[in-house]
Structure formats: C-alpha cells, structure tokens
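During the no-cost extension, the postdoctoral fellow (Dr. R.K.) reprocessed legacy sequence entries with the updated structure-token encoder. One reprocessed record is reproduced below for audit purposes.
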Amino acid sequence: MGMSVEAQIRVLIVEDHTMFAQALQSALDATDDIAVLAVAPSAADGLAAARTTPPDIVLMDYRLPDGDGVETARLLKKEHPETKVVMLTATGSDEVFRKAISAGCSGYLTKDQNIDQLMLAVRAAYRGDALISPEMLSRLVGRGADRTQPGHDLTTREIEVLKLVAEGLSNAAIAKKLGIRLATVRNHVQSLISKLYAHSKLEAVATAVRGGIIRYGE
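Re-encoded structure tokens follow.
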C-alpha cells in the first residue's frame, strides 16, 4: 500500500523542456514516498505554483524562458524558507554552481545524472542533507587557505563534522560514525554554517573547500 499524500515528499518541478519534465514526473510519481504537486514551465509559473501549495522540494532548471533558476530559487527561498531547492542544469559551470549555493540551494546536479541520483537528491534535500556530484565538488579544490575568510574559527570537531558532510553523510550517519548524539551533530552543523556565513550545508562545504579549510577526497 502506498503512503498517504501527507506523508509523501511533495515536489514541484520547474522545467520548460516538456519531455524531460514529463519523464522526471513519471519516475518520481512511480515511487511510494514522492509525489509531484505540479510541473511549471517558467519561473513565474513555478513561483505561482509554490504559493498555491508550498512544496517540500523544488527541482529547478537553471535556464528558464523568463529568467534563470538561481534568481528564481532566491525568490522562492525568500517566500518559503523551509522549501529545499535542487538545481538541475545542462552545464557543469562553476559560476552557475557558486550562484546556486549562494542562493541557498540544497543540491546541484547536471541533467546527465541518472534518475536514481535525482531520487537521492530529492530525499537528501528533504532530510536537510546536501547532495552535489563529486565532480563539481572536486573542481572547487585548489585555492589556498586564508585566515581572514569565514570559517577560520571552526573548532576541530566542527571541521571533523564538516568533512563528513562533504563526504555526503547524513546527520544521523555522522552521529553514528563519531559516537555522539544526533542533537549534538545538528548543533555542530548549525554552528559551522553560521561561522562560514552560509545558508545551507552545501554552501558551507563549498566555502570551506574554496578556502582550503577542508580538502576534497582527503
């Protein structure tokens, strides 16, 4: 028996390519725990749909006919702070990636990812975890540390937690790995996000990698 609509992860798809949007909707609706509320072909339609029924997750195309997905995500997050946005793009542009995390996106995936990866992105964002392809994160490596940058005052434990976040571990998995309480992990995560002047786990990881605080793949 499937889950009730109230118990499902409510998703809004903002995508102007009809075939891609329909394929994505069909795949998500075929799961027991995800329900697509609407498919919007433009930024304006996406914002209107979110106002009608606020979704848990928005899968946002970067290139839209009436604007870009980053600015739309920023506006949507301002109106619905609890809604998580996963950016979908045909390009792996570093500039777009940085704009997306600055706008508060919880995930960033290129459209060549398989449907299973998209499912993981939706579920990870819903849990409050970040999801980014390893290729994108690895491209942020290479800049030296700067003690004047955000995050210079992170504690040893916060850096340890941050490294595990960068590896894609959920808060629960981090708690188990470190042998500490889940509430303690959440406190560390909130603290490191604040110290890195970030709006999300994803932005915190990206800022830390760019600043040389953590190294990808270490």
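Confidence is low (pLDDT under 50) at residues 141-148. Strands lie at 9-14, 34-40, 57-61, 63-64, 67-68, 84-89, 107-110, 131-132. The remaining legacy entries will be reprocessed before the final report is submitted.
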